[in-house]
Write a structure and sequence with these properties.
By secondary structure, the protein is of the alpha+beta class. Among the domains are: 128 residues, no CATH class; 159 residues, no CATH class. It is built from 15 helices and 19 strands. A six-stranded antiparallel sheet has the order 6-7-8-9-13-10. Helix 9 packs antiparallel against helix 12. The radius of gyration is 29 Å and the shape is flat. It starts with a helix and ends in a 53-residue tail after the last strand.
Length: 555
């Protein structure tokens, strides 16, 4: 070893620091183990960076790249601009020719970049250690529990594969397609306690069933050999294949059966051109079907028609949520649903589109079931927070609640665009920070749980409320806090227990379990709410006609 070091000293004795630096960089670019860089080389590069004079654009880029890797961030370059990227935010650094910095901007993904004077001054002064520490603090603010969970290839194939995960059929078992799974497999034990309770994996067996109408069905494979793909990556099917007209059709037999809204049932028929007989479906409000299929001996069971129901959901850390589901609000045509146990089709090309619709519906069901399918009846539990769940469109719903330390209402609008795109928008006085919506959307997508997301939101809002007041956070004025006591109504849960509610907030009055602000609500500023959400007190708030926030054209 000493001989090798001596030879290295002799070889590079006349080399400049810059040449040595570039050599280490080249060695790092081609590590023997592609899963991670060589640790001694990383440490060497970091030590070289500390003594290297930043006097050019290239050296500043290299310094920023090392800092980004230290903070587990991505690093990208476009001409004179460097991007340090994380899951929920990124830094944009505009460089000058001599290694100086012209501008630094911070932006949440999907948001507009905002200039950051503090980051800019640290880089201009070449205080890289302080810059790295400040970046670490920003990274910690956006850190979400569970981000360190590695991506499961099997789960990714099930949820995102064009045809899910195929399990070959055997003599007594047909071909099975696994097409949707909940994210509990990658969660910590404490997180799973608040995760949805539906079956972990949704699957479909491919079989043949009798039909009242004749269909032309293939008698052999319609895939050319070898298989081919079109420019969009979809399989190419033979235009001529052996077929026969039979009073039958292919079936996707769902395991377990999936409650589906009427609009989704119609879309299934449009894809396959095979009508699903309406007489075979028993229609009911979607929450009622979800609780019916999730009910057990120790849960309240299904939601009675035209009745407001209350569900208690315990979460880790001793926190308890109570969710109100107004029966009349869900008893509308757009929320009619039926339990589908099989989907007919006549050609393999139908399957990918059918699976996407099924995944979309399963995502909606998972989110709703997380807050209306309790794991206990709530007897003897003191409820900390209260929420009201209302439908807004066929693919969106809202959750109304009291933010901490306020007497106003806030609304979290959850829009499930598809199984992979879930957006959360927060409405309420002083809650207009767009980065918070981005943060909540990521939490919702990660855990697929309304209670977990709302618990995270409350923690963020409590941190904001406890922070010192600044010009951007003015104190609440006396006029804003002045309100009259709203009228109250009584609702009955599935166990027959009566609970008093504020008609403007639907907050249970359970004898001290709720905070003072949760038992007395003030109207929300209408300018902060989306169109279609009524804030005016009425005799019965659930008998008025609701206006959908979104139309099918918006989806």
């Amino acid at each position: 070893m000493e001989a090798r070091i001596s030879k290295l000293h002799l070889k590079f004795a006349e080399k400049t620091w810059n040449e040595t630096f570039q050599l280490v960089r080249r060695c790092m670019d081609k590590p023997k183990d592609q899963s991670k860089p060589c640790e001694p080389l990383v440490r060497s590069l970091e030590r070289l960076q500390e003594v290297f004079n930043v006097s050019s654009m290239n050296t500043m880029r290299s310094r920023l790249e090392v800092i980004a890797k230290q903070q587990r961030m991505g690093f990208h370059i476009t001409e004179a601009t460097c991007y340090l990227t994380a899951d929920l935010f990124y830094l944009e650094v505009v460089l000058l020719a001599g290694g100086g910095v012209e501008e630094v901007k911070v932006a949440p993904h999907g948001g507009c970049p905002v200039p950051s004077e503090s980051f800019l001054q640290l880089l201009r002064a070449k205080h890289f250690a302080e810059f790295s520490m400040k970046l670490a603090g920003l990274f910690a603010q956006y850190n979400i529990p569970g981000d360190d969970v590695p991506k499961d290839p099997q789960m990714d194939m099930i949820n995102n594969g064009r045809i899910g995960c195929l399990i070959a059929g055997k003599e007594d078992t047909p071909l099975t397609i696994q097409f949707h799974t909940t994210p509990t497999a990658g969660m910590k034990t404490s997180d799973i306690q608040a995760a949805p309770t539906e079956a972990l994996v949704h699957a479909a067996q491919v079989t043949v069933g009798v039909s009242d109408v004749t269909h032309e069905l293939q008698m052999a494979s319609v895939l050319p050999q070898p298989p081919q793909l079109d420019p969009q990556g979809r399989p190419v099917f033979l235009t001529e294949a052996p077929c026969e007209t039979l009073p039958a059709c292919f079936l996707l037999k769902l395991q377990p059966a999936v409650p589906m809204m009427s609009s989704f049932v119609n879309k299934l028929s449009q894809i396959t051109a095979v009508a699903i007989p309406d007489v075979d479906l028993q229609w009911a409000p979607l929450p009622k079907l979800l609780t019916r299929r999730s009910s057990s001996s120790n849960s309240p069971g299904e939601i009675p028609d035209q009745r407001d129901s209350v569900f208690t959901v315990p979460l880790p850390g001793g926190v308890t949520h109570r969710y109100v589901v107004p029966g009349a609000a869900w008893e509308v045509p757009s929320q009619r649903a039926a339990v589908a146990d099989s989907i007919p089709f006549t050609h393999p090309a139908h399957v990918p589109a059918l699976l996407e619709l099924l995944r979309h519906q399963c995502a909606i069901n998972t989110l709703l079931r997380s807050c209306i399918a309790p794991q206990c009846d709530g007897a003897g539990l003191v409820c900390d927070l209260h929420f009201e769940v209302l439908p807004e469109s066929e693919t969106s719903f809202s959750v109304t609640f009291h933010p901490p330390d306020t007497d106003s209402l806030a609304v979290l609008l959850v829009n499930v665009c598809d199984s992979n795109q879930i957006t959360c928008t927060l409405f309420g006085s002083g809650l207009g920070d767009p980065s918070l919506g981005e943060y909540l959307s990521t939490v919702m997508k990660r855990f697929m749980s309304v209670p977990v997301t709302l618990k995270t939101l409350y923690r963020k809002l409590e941190e904001t409320a406890s922070a010192p007041l600044s010009p951007s956070r003015p104190a609440t004025t006396e006029a804003e806090s002045d309100h009259s006591a709203p009228s109250r109504a009584t609702v009955t849960d599935a166990n027959g227990a009566s609970t008093a509610f504020s008609q403007s907030a639907a907050v249970p009055e359970d004898g001290g379990g709720a905070s003072a602000s949760a038992c007395c609500a003030a109207p929300v500023d209408d300018s902060e709410l989306p169109p279609g959400i009524n804030t005016s007190p009425v005799v019965n708030p659930y008998l008025v006609t609701r206006v959908d926030v979104f139309t099918p054209d918006d989806q």
